[in-house]
Every structure is written in C-alpha cells, then in structure tokens.
Amino acid sequence: MTLLLLYLLALLDGVLCGLRTAMGRDPRIGKRWYYLRATIRGLLGAQLVSTVALGALLVVAVVSWHHSELRGDLEESAGRMLRIFLPYAALVLGSLALRGVPSTDIRSASSVFLLGPLTAIRPVVMIAGVGFGISQSRLWETRVLGVIILALMLTLEFALNRWMGRIQRKQIAKLIPRKISGKQSWEMETEK
Description:
The termini are far apart. 82% of the residues lie in helices and 2% in strands. A two-stranded antiparallel sheet has the order 1-2. A hairpin with a 2-residue loop joins β1 (179-180) and β2. The protein is mainly alpha-helical and 192 residues long. It has one domain (2-175). The longest helix has 36 residues, at 140-175.
C-alpha cells in the first residue's frame, strides 16, 4: 500500500511539474487546452520515471541476496518517506484548492505565500523525504533504489522545463521572423 501511495504521489508531482513548466509561456487568454496538454505531458513524464524506477526495482530484486527482507525494508522506507511527502502534498493541494475561491485577492495570496514557496522547496522536500526514508534502511539495495528514484524525480521537472522551452522557442520563431530582407528585425526598427 505504501509503495502505491508513493506511486500516486509521483504521478501528482508529475502533473504539477507539467503545469509549472508551462506557466507564463503562452500569451493566449484561453489556455484550457494548453494547460491540459501540459498536465498530460507531466503525467506521461512521471509515468516514464515510474516505469524506469520499476525496472530498477526488478533488477535489484533479481540481484539481491536478501529477497525475503527486501520487500519489508522497501515498505518501511516508503512509510518513512510518506511521513514527509504526505503533509507536503496536503499543503500543495490545499493551496491549490484556494485557487478555486472566487476572490482574486485570495487566489493571488495563495500563489505568492503558498504555491511559490512550496514550489521552491520541492527539491529540498524530496531530498529530505528520500533521505529520511532510506536513513534507517538495513539493506544497501533500498538505499540505491531511493537515490535512483530521487534522481529521476528531480530530473523530471528539469526535462519538462527544457521541453517547454523548446516549444516556446518554436512558437516565437513562427511569430517573429529572424531576418527581413537580409536585415535583422531590430535593425529595421533603428532605421525608422
């Protein structure tokens, strides 16, 4: 059950990473489909990370000499991780729920005072959660898996951010031509 909860939290984290990396990159007013695609992109990224993590788990399970102890050790470590991740997820979801309040002041305050700082401390929370989870582990296999999963999850937002940056550069290139009749567009502005 604890491993399932960690998986669901990873999917939620991926969805939020997808949204975060898309914010502020599109000038359109109606962004429902844009954010939906960003959400799906984040979900698929988290699913990819989870699949790689499952592959690492299967490899460790095959090479481990401690088959009978490994499952218990993994579940104990996951339970300790949940002590950090569940309160953090509750705070994030609570601050997102405030975005549904019809008051612009409350929505703005929730972004500035809750979502912004919670986003900023995400890597620290992930490192603390995994560190706390594997700190009392009895098996090296559990520690290695924890570090691999931490690296994968920290890489997810970076990869999504690069992907969205590439999409944004393509959109800008379509809107603003690089050269107009042999001159840079900024040169034409200075000639006027």
